[in-house]
Design a protein that fits this description.
With 270 residues, the chain is an alpha/beta fold. Helix content is 55%, strand content 13%. Helix 7 crosses helix 12 and helix 8 crosses helix 9. It catalyses: L-proline + NAD(+) = (S)-1-pyrroline-5-carboxylate + NADH + 2 H(+); L-proline + NADP(+) = (S)-1-pyrroline-5-carboxylate + NADPH + 2 H(+).
Length: 270
Amino acid sequence: MKITFIGGGNMAKALIGGLIKRGYSPSKMHVVEVSKEKSAELHNEFGVRATPELAVAVAHAEVLILAIKPQQLQEVALQLAPILAGQLVISIAAGIRTQDMARWLGTHNIVRCMPNTPALIRSGVTALYAMPAVVPEQCHRAESILSAVGSTLWVDDEEMLDAVTAISGSGPAYVFYFIEAMQQAAYELGLDEAQARQLVLDTFLGASKLAESSQEDVALLRGRVTSKKGTTEKALLSMEASQVKQGIVAAIHAAAARSRELGDELGKDA
């Protein structure tokens, strides 16, 4: 399988690195990158070919990965349209719907993906949606590529990618926000920066691993560390009084609504 990445940014680099770590040959990967500096970095770091020439890189590819900013996608897609020859197109550009991409690219062989930033350390999670024209073998190819940077799951309804964007796409920022708040509290209680960082990050990592390894609902796990009239109960009662959970749920609904809005805005023909 020969792969061409359109765009050599962080997510493309994460995928290239993940594929190489799995034993995939750099000689089968090509990157279209207009920046000479980035092209040199890609070649030096991964041994892949990088060129600004779109037609050359696309000619022998079986899979194209659109790893560019959403605002650039329409322009690039219109350039790609006349040189496509049945390749599978995988888009990791946020927000742009497959029907809009199909209109610009002139093909329905499109898989749209929503990865998240932990993919940079191969701990991401990616949701995928395939247009009906995509055959099972192509779905398998898309999944094998994206699974190089973490876990994957398929959605049958493209609209669910708005929910995915709000949950796992934006999710790392919510976690960082909560980490910031806990670190601030740690400072205020007299712990130094290193102590606060270790305590908070290890608590998140440990709690996540515990939840992942358990078959039980997280509410039950929470209940087990919440003794009646104890410190945890006091903290959780304070959060409930401030409607923290309702605020988080409302924020995620707002993120999903914004994802739908961006899909409308980015899908308009220029």
